[in-house]
Amino acid sequence: MAVRARIEKDITKHTLSICHLRSELNTLSPIYRLPPELLATIFIGCASDYHNNTKDFHFTRIVPTWVNVSYVCRYWRGVALDCTTLWTYHFVISPRWTEELLVRSKQALLKTSCNLVQYDSGRIYFLRRLIAVDHLMAQTERIQELRMALPNIDSDQILRLFSSRAPCLQTLDLKLWVADSSKQYPVVVLFQGDTPALRALELEYCPVPWYLLNLSGLTTLSLRHVPICFQQKTEEFLATLGDMHDLTHLELDAALACADDFLRSPAFHSRQKINLPHLSRLLIDAPLSTVIALLSCVNIPFKTELRLTCRFEDAFPDNFTLLSPVLAQWFNTSLEARSAIRSLVIHFSWRGWELTFSGLERDCDPSYFDSESGRSWGYNTPLRIFLACTVETTNLNHCWINEFCSSLPLMHVQSLHAINPPTSSMFWMETLGHLQDLRSSN
Fold first, then answer.
1. pLDDT higher than threshold 90 for residue 55
2. Are 295 and 324 in contact (CB under 8 A)?
3. Under 8 Å between Cβ of 241 and 279
4. Cα–Cα distance measured from residue 356 to residue 350, given in angstroms and rounded to the nearest whole number
5. What is the sign, positive or negative, of the torsion defined by CA atoms of 327, 328, 334, 335?
6. What are residue 249's DSSP bridge partners?
7. I want to staple 93 with a disulfide (CB 3.0 to 4.6 A). Which of 22, 97, 103, 328 is the partner?
8. 3-state secondary structure string, the chain?
């Protein structure tokens, strides 16, 4: 037994010696001799890339891969643990990890991304994450960015955790998967409405009174599929919008109620226009009356990238006659805007017709216009206007199409795509006979 113990002792001794020699050998590696400041910058870049790639939010049971930089060697681990900024890129895995990240980040501002949608993870795992979120929200005053995907079933319970003031919050991105737009939700005022630093607000299917937040410094506002009980009337929205003087990006997709009553009221005709001088991107997908009201009451800079989707309202068919002069006035005010329309798609079907005006300088591609990708901002398209009408009266369809094409500046249209067009040559001559720059049509 004594011999065996001596051999095991020698093995341990030599093993430790080998580990020590390997550590010394590692110090000769160029990457080991990188300055700690440079290493810290690289580590932060890894964490930042992971955090910013959250369009669909991360959903995983394991720690993010960028944390592995703290496990490579003693030197790297020391640099990582001493880098407070690295641990401000907060992820929500478990209560234990949340507490550890809060300690490592010290008192620095936090950037948090979290997906609470359960998928097939099970109820227990969801509850663990919910506890972790509860621990995190105890530090609300430190949160600078908050991006979160919420489940439909427990959304009320989760949103109630956002009850403390958020004086440093700059970005708030909440998505609910997927809400019932007609459901009556309880009113939960996020962060007591105290968000003086808020610059970007993005909500999708989220049942909250967003307009009760402090929005005076907002530069980005994106509202998608707002539940009906939290949709503002157009006049109320315009009052809210009037305080956003620094707004650059505005996206409204099924976010506002029908504005027909407002269009017929004295308030519409007497209202002063809102100036948004910094607006560079505007997307509106709304009932036709709402689009008309917004375009009529907001001064839109001529260089603004514009996406309009106008939904026809059966109860108010005459609103189409109100839209063309509004658009014509916007185009005719500027020489730059007059030459913006380069492509035109006219789609006739048993449901009615669809018109798409575009600033694309290439031939019209119907698959592009029919897809969701056509609404994105990655196509360098300065203008896109989509009009849909479900009226089946042929004469009325032709009349409206003729009115639009006559009132808008189409003299620079180069591409025309007509789907199931009417056979009347007289209609085409009256509507599009003045297009001198037309290069292709089908």
1. no
2. no
3. no
4. 18
5. positive
6. 220, 281
7. 97
8. CHHHHHHHHHHHHHHHHHHHHHHHHHCCCHHHHCCHHHHHHHHHHHHHHHHHCCCCCCCCCCCCHHHHHHHCCHHHHHHHHHCHHHHHEEECCCHHHHHHHHHHCCCCCEEEEEECCCCCCCHHHHHHHHHHHHHHHCCHHHEEEEEEEEECCCHHHHHCCCCCCCCCCCEEEEEEECCCCCCCCCCCCHHHHCCCCCCEEEEECCCCCHHHCCCCCCCEEEEECCCHHHCCCHHHHHHHHCCCCCCCEEEEECCCCCCHHHHCCHHHHHCCCEECCCCCEEEEEEEHHHHHHHHHHEECCCCCEEEEEEECCCCCHHHHHHHHHHHHHHHHCCHHHHCCCCEEEEEEECCEEEEEEECCCCCCCHHHHHCHHHHCCCCCCCEEEEEEECCCCHHHHHHHHHHHHHHCCCCCCCEEEEECCCCCHHHHHHHHCCCCCCCEEC
**Residue whose C-alpha is closest to residue 191's, from 139, 246, 116, 126:** 139
Give the amino acid at 111. Answer: K
CA pair distance 78, 73, nearest whole angstrom: 9
Mind listing the pLDDT tens digit for each residue in 308-355? 888 777 656 666 677 778 877 777 666 565 557 878 887 777 666 777
Instruction: Tell me what the pLDDT averaged over the chain comes to.
Output: 80
Q: Which helix (H) or strand (E) holds 202?
A: strand 200-204
Q: How many CB atoms are located within 10 Å of the residue 120 CB?
A: 5
State pLDDT tens for residues 287-300.
888 988 998 899 88
155: phi then psi, degrees, rounded to nearest 5: -60, -40
- Helix locations, 119-242, DSSP H: 123-137, 155-159, 234-241
CA 398 vs CA 57, 347, 404: distances in Å: 46, 12, 10
> How much is the pLDDT for 20?
73
